[in-house]
Amino acid sequence: MTETTPGLGLTELPEPNGTVLVVGDAGLIGSYAARQYSQLGWEVYGISRREVPDATWTHHSADLLDTEALTALIADTEGLRDTTHLVFGAYVEKSTDEELIAINDELLTSTLDALKSAGVPLKHVTIYQGGKAYGHHLGFFNTPAKESDPRLVAKHFYATQEDILRERSERDGFAFTALRPEGVTGYATGNPMNLLLVIGVYAAISKELGLPLRFPGTRAAYEVLYQTTDAELLGRATVWAGSAASAENEIFNVTNGDQFRWSQLWPKFAAHFGMEYAPPQQMSLAESMPAHAEVWERLVQRHGLVDTPFEKLVGWGVGDFLFHHEADNITSTVKVRQAGFADVLDSETRLLQLFDELVEAKVLQPFEAK
To answer: 86: helix, coil or strand?
Structure first.
């Protein structure tokens, strides 16, 4: 546990005992998991289609859907063929549930088929789910949601992937864990599915335009209870789950461990950014913000920021969804704590710290607090 991040490090993580393959290591969740394993001294490899310029592990670019080529890569690469732990963070977005199930199930089965064909000594697989397992995307759901809550009638790839893993783990002799975060916050280059960047870039552009910071959602969404999961905390939970006997073949909600209302945080965001704050103004970020790409480019040039294409920098739809969700989003983390993972964070403090880290990394421009 560090002095600057109290709450991270409460759980004693396992000593290196195997070789880790992170599939989807270019993504937000996958990159943090790979980095956490690497920092702890594990042998870590990553596979995704995109390059990972800041990787502290060995990265390979590959098409996960080409099972034959993937098998050859794993079987013919020293280290990869020794894989004992699979962290599966790959994901492809589609517009319908049927398409989501088809493509994301195929990503998982292709990876598992390749590992088996390559003869790796696989012991554990970690996958990620989320609040949609409880119906967050449908509106109201029972809160605090527990892992024992019944599945939805509507099929979802979380459930189909879980069924695949239960069948394969029993047949092939490995264990698995499914982790359910919510609103993951952190930073990965070129990964727009990130609430932190939605808020930070929206604030930066508003400030450059001389405007106050406004919550861009509905009044009801402004007042409901919400929660987030820090990407570093989730990475630590991933390492814990990969080796803890109490995590074998289990599902766990993983969040920072607290709840908040946006009405409590947005005025504090404004003060942290050195901005005035005004009452909420409902709007569509996805419709409004692309028109300000030139404003962002001006900030990039003026402050020497990381030059990520604006369309790949922020997923505005993420903000639209979360800032217009008018029901509490709370999941219980009792189960994961009782199983042995104790890390917690104060979300308000951590979010402000993460904004500062984005400034230090030249992802956001410098700002002066009010």
So the answer is: strand
Question: What is the distance between the alpha carbons of residues 367 and 207, in angstroms, rounded to a whole number?
Answer: 10
Cα–Cα distance for residue pair 204/211, rounded to 1 Å: 10
Strand 85-88 to 225-226 pairing? unpaired
Q: What residues does 137 pair with on adjacent strands?
A: none
Q: What digits encode the pLDDT tens for the residues 269-305?
A: 999 999 999 999 999 999 999 999 999 999 999 999 9
Angle (nearest 5°) at CA 233 between 25 and 364? 70
Is the model's pLDDT at 3 over the cut of 50?
no
Please state, in angstroms and rounded to a whole number, the distance separating the CA atoms of residues 251 and 349: 28
Residue 45 main-chain phi, psi, to 5 deg: -130, 150
- Phi then psi dihedrals of residue 71, to 5 deg: -60, -45
- pTM for the predicted model, two decimal places: 0.95
Torsion (CA) 55, 58, 61, 62 in degrees, nearest 10 = -140
Cα distance from N-terminal residue to C-terminal residue, the chain: 30
Instruction: Give yes or no for a cis peptide into 53 (omega within 30° of 0).
Output: no
For the chain, counts of helices (H) and of strands (E): 14, 11
Backbone φ/ψ region at 340: left (φ over 0), alpha (ψ -120 to 50), beta:
left
Cα–Cα dist 289/352, whole Å: 23
Quote the CA–CA distance of 162 and 168 in Å, as a whole number: 10
Which residue is associated with the tokens 């609103």?
183
The vertex-329 CA angle with 311 and 215, nearest 5°, equals: 50
In tens, the pLDDT along 239-248 reads 999 999 999 9
